[in-house]
């Protein structure tokens, strides 16, 4: 969940604790139109099928095992299902390349634990998923700018990390319908990233949280698929760790995610998990496996239709209501539209005002930048918004931005 | 689950990889009588009630929320239930003092993350729960001997840690029916520990995994209860973190544990969890809460009866079958009997022989010692053993030990 206190506290010098408390209260009001949470719509959860799966697991031959301790690498039939699913997007792997975690967030923590020592450098996009920064920050790394793409010599990444007292340990990205920008990396950008990773010999963390949520345009091969193509389709020679999750497709409340990677890194991650929390919930892995087997494609189709419609509505509303000087992305999938406000406008101040006078919530963009830049950006999520919420909310927000722009002029 | 490869590899110089592989295969044979796993008996799981709770949660008003993301500190009604349960064992706290984790193993990892830097010292008992060593080892600490109790001056702990380049960060113990020894700390020992902790100003981690599993004798107040008594019953002034789990009482497969502590440390742990895996499974927290509310006492009574009977049977069999020169503990609860073999006998060698000729498995004690001592100890678990398994297994083991003793004489 969003750490709102932190979001507001980044402007600490200008906002009193009492004012922050007031805003936090406002956020909880039922009349607030929220484009804030990057969460799935509860109405799309396959609730009946999940209930059926729990009942079946517990009444069947697996019932005892479902409630018992289990192995750290994860439930084998679920790993087998993932192997099959991966092959559909160009990733050839075996069960020994698949490791189940408690959501893909846990994987980001484990990858931080495995690779980062204090003062090492992680390459991330600017902006990037704030949860990744949160996970990595525990290991006190520095960050260097991976994207926007540049003509930087590969050696400069190494030199800069060395100046800061460590090494470049990995590149992290969300190539599909990026959180927060909604942008998808082109095939050329993915190849550029793999070139860079090869040249400076680092792994690539491919956070594929939104992979299945494409609503238009042509799909691009996952980075791991391109990596495989470079290595004779031998996953043991690849350097990309593909992080998947059921949180955006089936249900986040069961906390099941996975990684696909060479078996050497999988073995190391399994040892980390064994020491850190033994294993992910046995019964939840069985239930996710059962539900995925039965209705994954159907569920994806349902989600695509609903979110795709909301994305379209939001982009149409933006076109109608946003004043000149405001820019935004046109994502082909995912949950987010990324808005760049006129220069000098502050996303957090706008949110404070918007909550009070417009009753509209969103996330100020600053929290997604490793260096705290990006004050004039905001993230809008359309995943839980109805047509009316979108039309009313974007109209109000456009009006407020126009008024602030006028006042500043 | 037990990392058997590691257990055997501690004797690496004397055991070939092929021999280890052979033993690992033997461990999986269905005719092996196992006293190895420290796991609950699947036959005692409240399977029907768990199934009913899943069905209720998913069909009721909570159904949507059960599948959605939730807060990092844990599901409030479950935390409220824990507050009530804690008050029954002398611990007065509020919901803000309770934090839900994915099993208590996760808490050990988080406490390591929060407190330990490389070269710091953790005080642990000799032997101690090997999973705690596993969790802490990720943060590269040193260990100093907390118990057996000694007359060491408190300052010596500080000095020794300082010589090793760090500070003493906490004391960790399993006061009730200790894993692996089965021993319970007396009230005097607990007070001694709190005295020490106060003098050198460190927190105490009270791992209460087996708290409810008492089969005879008088219960001793939890360390946190004694700490509260020293501090006017104000939990905010205490230094003890009480770690509980549903894994030994309801079911480990749902991965739900908790900590009770002052709210300052709880807040820090919540932030760690937010960055590390967001939150524990929402639906599993709801289900555990429902099941606990309905049948916790009944379930505890059932477990006590069964495990208590097995403990008695095992101690009787030990009395009958163990040769002179073998010592063992007489635990008042928990799952384990701790055996000290005649001096010079090696627990891992004994296991290798026992698997081959006697078809009996147990855990060599070495893995429970931070310094790899304790070669002549083994841990026997009675939690999953039937009367026949106990009688046959202990008889065979006693015979083997007697034969080895004779051969060595």
UniProtKB/TrEMBL annotation, chains A, B:
<keyword id="KW-0808">Transferase</keyword>
<keyword id="KW-0663">Pyridoxal phosphate</keyword>
<dbReference type="InterPro" id="IPR004839">
    <property type="entry name" value="Aminotransferase_I/II_large"/>
</dbReference>
<protein>
    <submittedName>
        <fullName>PLP-dependent aminotransferase family protein</fullName>
    </submittedName>
</protein>
<feature type="domain" description="Aminotransferase class I/classII large">
    <location>
        <begin position="33"/>
        <end position="397"/>
    </location>
</feature>
<keyword id="KW-0032">Aminotransferase</keyword>
<dbReference type="GO" id="GO:0008483">
    <property type="term" value="F:transaminase activity"/>
</dbReference>
<dbReference type="InterPro" id="IPR015424">
    <property type="entry name" value="PyrdxlP-dep_Trfase"/>
</dbReference>
<dbReference type="InterPro" id="IPR050859">
    <property type="entry name" value="Class-I_PLP-dep_aminotransf"/>
</dbReference>
<dbReference type="InterPro" id="IPR015422">
    <property type="entry name" value="PyrdxlP-dep_Trfase_small"/>
</dbReference>
<dbReference type="Pfam" id="PF00155">
    <property type="entry name" value="Aminotran_1_2"/>
</dbReference>
<dbReference type="InterPro" id="IPR015421">
    <property type="entry name" value="PyrdxlP-dep_Trfase_major"/>
</dbReference>
């Amino acid at each position: 969940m969003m750490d709102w206190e932190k979001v507001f506290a980044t402007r600490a010098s200008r906002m009193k604790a009492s004012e922050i408390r007031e805003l936090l209260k406002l956020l909880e009001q039922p009349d607030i139109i929220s484009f804030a949470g990057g969460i799935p719509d509860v109405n799309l959860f396959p609730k009946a099928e999940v209930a059926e799966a729990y009942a079946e697991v517990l009444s069947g031959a697996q019932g005892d095992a479902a409630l018992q301790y289990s192995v750290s690498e994860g439930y084998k039939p679920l790993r087998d299902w993932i192997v099959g699913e991966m092959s559909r997007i160009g990733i050839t792997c075996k069960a020994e390349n698949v490791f189940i975690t408690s959501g893909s967030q846990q994987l980001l923590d484990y990858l931080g634990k495995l690779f980062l020592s204090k003062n090492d450098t992680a390459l991330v996009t600017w902006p990037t998923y704030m949860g990744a920064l949160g996970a990595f920050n525990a290991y006190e790394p520095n960050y260097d700018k991976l994207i926007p793409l540049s003509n930087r010599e590969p050696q400069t990444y190494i030199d800069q990390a060395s100046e800061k007292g460590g090494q470049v340990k990995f590149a992290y990205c969300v190539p599909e319908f990026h959180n927060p920008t909604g942008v998808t990396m082109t095939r050329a950008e993915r190849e550029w990233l793999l070139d860079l990773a090869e040249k400076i010999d680092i792994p690539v963390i491919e956070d594929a949280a939104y992979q299945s949520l494409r609503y238009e345009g042509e799909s691009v091969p996952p980075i791991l698929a391109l990596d495989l193509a470079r290595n004779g389709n031998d996953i043991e020679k690849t350097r990309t760790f593909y992080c998947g999750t059921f949180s955006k497709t089936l249900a986040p409340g069961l906390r099941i995610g996975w990684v696909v990677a060479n078996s050497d890194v999988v073995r190391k991650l399994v040892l980390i998990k064994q020491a850190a929390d033994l294993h992910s919930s046995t019964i939840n892995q069985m239930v996710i496996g059962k539900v995925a087997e039965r209705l994954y494609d159907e569920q994806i189709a349902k989600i695509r239709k609903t979110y795709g419609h909301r994305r379209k509505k939001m982009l149409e509303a933006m076109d109608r209501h946003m004043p000149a000087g405001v820019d935004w992305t046109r994502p082909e999938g995912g949950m987010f539209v990324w808005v760049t406000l006129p220069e000098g406008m502050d996303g957090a101040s706008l949110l404070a005002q918007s909550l009070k006078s417009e009753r509209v919530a969103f996330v100020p963009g600053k929290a997604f930048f490793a260096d705290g830049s990006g004050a004039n950006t905001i993230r809008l999520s359309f995943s839980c918004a109805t047509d009316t919420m979108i039309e009313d909310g974007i109209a109000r927000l456009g009006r407020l931005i126009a008024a602030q722009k006028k006042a500043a002029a």
